[in-house]
Amino acid sequence: MQKEPINRDSCYDYICVVDFEATCEEGNPPEFVHEIIEFPVVLLNTHTLEIEDTFQQYVKPEINPKLSDFCISLTGITQDVVDKAETFTQVLQNVIEWMRQRELGTKYSYSMLTDGSWDMSKFLNTQCRISRIKYPSFAKRWINIRKSYGNFYKVPRNQTKLTMMLENLGMNYDGRPHSGLDDSKNIARIAIRMLQDGCELRVNERMHAGQLMTVSSLAPLEGAPAPQMPRYRN
Known about the structure:
Elements: E1 14-17, E2 21-22, E3 36-45, E4 50-58, H1 69-75, H2 79-83, H3 88-101, E5 110-114, H4 118-130, E6 141-144, H5 145-153, H6 162-168, H7 180-196, E7 205-208, E8 211-214
């Protein structure tokens, strides 16, 4: 039986919340190359305001295959887990297949959503170069929830960290911080509350020619395209 829609006026039918975990070292030296080691997606139905499904896979890093103790401690991801994981290219293929099965971009409109700009502009951008593939078209535009939250609730940018956003909404973090999937679920909880409070969550950032750009709230509303595997770079 179909649930009665609670929220009829959303910009998109679904929002895909993504929060990557990546290789890291203590102090994050500037020359260190971050590789994605966890690819989670939380599928939020904007009409029922419920998390409808989740995806999570770990990724084997290529450049720094051995995780630092700092990274293991921070993310909870062990060496054994990444050693047994598939490469990023294969995991991305699995993500795209999962999204296609849910008819995103064909039957249903959707947008990606992240906590800040880094997931797409830095982690995914860098990872695609490492994996020698083009940047995927479905991830070229997204909702940066920090910007949306700051603008909607009129709070300064230094109050838009994940734990502070939750706290300001009277919620506690649920799960293990820096687990990509748990972070994504908590970001989805914030998105749900914002939709309940009447916020129009819409795309506000994009990648263009490898650069991060702002999308105006006056820009025409368009959902992400049906996901396709990007081509290999020449």
